[in-house]
Amino acid sequence: MSFKRTIEDFICEKCGTHVSGDGYTDHCPSCLWSKHVDVHPGDRASTCAGAMEPTAVEGTTPNYVILYRCVRCGHTHRVKIHTLDSADAIVALADKRARAAQ
Ligand SMILES: [Zn+2]
Ligand SMILES: [Zn+2]
Hints:
This protein is α+β, with helices and mostly antiparallel strands.
């Protein structure tokens, strides 16, 4: 029996997409939701495991950053978008914020 490195793979709790991690992916490329697993980016030190809601998009093409807030504990963090992230989901998130600002 051999050990397989599956730590970065996860099933999105929001939309059910199976996400195959590449060492950078920490959020769902389909709906952009993430999970509270880090205290500092990449350390996987948090025991919260709450869902991280994408709340806003900042930056300009191609350097977008997604802002997150944990629905369980309120922890916030930001990550660069991944090349595989859904452009539709990013636009929808940017739209949502633009409407909220009006
Ligand atoms: Zn998802
Ligand atoms: Zn949390």
